[in-house]
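Q: what does this look like with copper (II) ion bound?
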Amino acid sequence: MLTKVHTGLDAAPGVWWKPAHKAEKVWVAIAFAWCMVLFAMMPLWHWRGGQNPSGIRRRVEPRAFYARTQEFAKQYQVGTDRGLPIVQPPAGSDVYMTALTFQWYPILQLTQGETYRLHLSALDVNHGFSLYPLNVNFQIVPGYDYALEVTPTASGDFRIICNEFCGIGHHTMVGRVIVLDKAGQRVSDNANARLGNGATP
Amino acid sequence: MSATLTASGAADAFRTCAFTGRRIHRQAEALVKANAVVAVVSLLIGAIAALLLVLTRWQAVHLLPAVWYYRILGVHGMNMLIFFIIYFEMAVLWFTSTALLNARPANPKLGWVNFGLMLLGTILVEWMQWSGKADVLFTSYPPLKAHPIFYLGIILFAVGALLVVAQFFATLVIAKREKTYEGSLPLVVYGAMTAAIIAVITLLHGAIIYIPTFLWSIGVIKSVDPQIYRMIWWALGHSSQQINVAAMVAVWYMLSALTVGGVVLNEKVSRSAFVLYVLFISMASAHHLLVDPGFGPAWKVVNTSYFMYMAVLASMIHGFTVPAGMELGMRLRGYTQGLFGWLRRAPWGDPGFSGMVFSVVVFGFVGGITGVTIGTEQINIIAHNTMRIPGHFHATVVSGTAMAFMAATYYLLPLVFRRKVAFWGAAKIQPYLFAIGMLLLSMGMTFAGSFGVPRRHWDISFSQAPFSVQFNPAVDLVLAVMGIGGIMAVTGALLFIAIAVKSVFFGEPLGEIVPGRAVAGVPQGLTNPPVHPANVDEVNERLHRENPSWIGPTPGTMALVGIFLAAFVVYYFTNWKLLSVLWKVG
Ligand SMILES: [Cu+2]
């Protein structure tokens, strides 16, 4: 028995809890099944996939984190660029980077195929870590240490763009990450240069 | 003597609607008008801001200086996402709870006080933003700090809105007690009630987060934890968009009924979908925190997937029942030809209809699909804070909600303001202009974001940065698409504002409406109402009998949702593929 025909502007007839039409049931079932697929994909990717925003997360005093970063930079510094230390930590080590208005400190020099534990935090306000040209993005929140296991799978000369508004100089906040190839050499044809020539990221 | 006065006063309190024969309460109507007018003013400010922003982000034009870009960005967000939308929703609440129920409003005097409270809050916020004392953008994440009056303005606005929502519920109770309608609430009012419930949840979160932030700004509290702020703020920032979704869906059902006689297929299904919004929407705000340091994977997965997808399910249900209701409504009126005859013969020249259809389509196909995809825990890594985010929400909030509200306005002008729609020829094309513009804007932003172009960024040529960054040249192209789309959309919005202002303040009075005779300036659904035949229930039984398979009596809609699902699946898995080639991170 169908409901009396009416529109959404009419008061619903007395008893409106009636069985749905077959077509509606079919669509609700399909939509529900699709939502289950969406459900399943995230745990599945934690289990089998290589890119997850998990990491080790703990609270940290912003100034203490910055001091730790400076200590780390001093320990492994191999050069300087634009006044910032270039830091080459050993494979498998803890790597620190602090975001502050309007700078990513320090410059990292990593090696392709090696794994690092990259600690990210901010000294002052929220910042956005955006690895260019790969388009890998993380939120940087002051007071929180976000330690991600990172394995660069490609060599090149990468940038870190700040993509969270952090003040009036926000758009000048660009950092640098160098990834040496497996032989430990800098790659002249870096990712950025390739992009300049019109390749896709 | 006094008895007569009261009696005549009560009679005067209402007028009778020329189209629908409903009793309209004059005070409630005045509140609808006031809220609608302020909504349109906010839209005007927001639209001018939008033009300036789009001409700045279009790197080839790069109009504004940095300070003004960020300032106007804050102004744009506040006026569009908060003021325009919420004032319009207040109008929707007053309208649905009184006009659609033949009811009187609960304490209209208090309604004016609350309206004044909201207005005061609005003015304070505008003042702070324009004077550069609140350059913290719309989200105002601490430790960025604005002037205390900025936070105070938001609190006053939220309290006023919360009290109006309480009055909406009181009005529903009055209507029920005074038996102004029979049976259960109409679906449209039910949808508006859902929006009101979500509004309570939303505005409470707003109070929870903005009161301590205000205290922090005046020095009473030492600090506000930036991560906890982000969590609770998004329970305001995201849930407020869910008020929009619920209100928008209610408007879809309303316009479907007014324009093509769209029916409610099944009250149980549609109402249950609204309930899903209420239950699961607040948790969905966790998808703003997917790549934040403060929360573990289990928390992120549970809050996005297990809760958000139930709200997604609700939208997918409405995405079927709204077009299917229109299809069945048209078929019941004799438009039974083929799969899409009902769609071809629909009133495409009625801006109330075309605007509503574009709202459904762009919201679903662009906003919905991109939103669910980038709201996936891992896929968010390639989307967070890039232009994909504004690309997504312009498709939902603007192409979806704002367009639905514009479409509804073409009906509210004659129904509430009793004016003809001004510039009728322009009004007919306005939804097309606006929809195409918004579509280009959303696509341009989405593709730019896929190349890593950040949102909320003044200069992506990085001319003042220490290290060079050069985006793929394709970015110039997609930003040009965004720019052109933005200009079209702003033109469409300004056209809408011109139509609304001219109609309301200098509009031609409605005059006499003879059913069946078209009048320039009055939407077809009013001059030529989509009436169902007297034996409609019989026809309905027959249509169902003749289509016993699982496809049912609305095969056109089945085909459309099939295309939608296919697009969804392809887009979703393409993104996993893109993610899988990145550095290993975890
Ligand atoms: Cu920054």
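Confidence is low (pLDDT under 50) at residues 192-201 of chain A. The two ends of chain A are 58 Å apart (CA to CA).
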